[in-house]
Amino acid sequence: MRIAAIVEGHGEIEAVPILVRRIAQEIDAGFVPHVLPPLRVPASRLIKAGEVERSVELAARKLRGRGGILVILDCDWNGCCPAREGPILLERARRARGDTLISVILAKREFEAWFIAAVGSLCGKRNLATRITTPPDPEGIRDAKGWLSAHMSSGESYSETDDQPALAAVFDMATARNSDSFDKCYREIRKMLESLRTGPTSQCAA
To answer: Is the pTM of this model over 0.90?
Structure first.
């Protein structure tokens, strides 16, 4: 069973496969999906006419058979709303490849907001302070990467390529589900994995 991911940032190239495998482990400890090396496409390009369709077609070809396509982006462009933009992108993707299981997940502002939502589980890790209070609205923070840097040891700063995969491997997903966009991410990935593992290909709900 194969999963092809389309991501935006350099850090997500490693972080998203880790996230998928962690959720698979919660379904079954012996369940290890094959996550293909993600395609990296900036959101500013992907939302243009014809681009998500082109990327989904390329991802489907890489699957070479039964599998699923995950599109995971930061919803941080001007005026972006995950609840509005996600279904639009999903519909476009499905029109391009209606024969393939596809899910579109938009992190509200940044992927890193999910780490902030569960920051209590990350204290003392990757140069983060040993005591950090979770802010009341992690997804409302602009510049989540900067927020993480501000809570690191003096002289250290958040590295997308180094810290994002490492934190994706250890953050408390149950706590992070208190953020709406991560809860949707978790549910969508789990639904795709369970569908691919147990049944014939069908489309994820928006």
So the answer is: yes
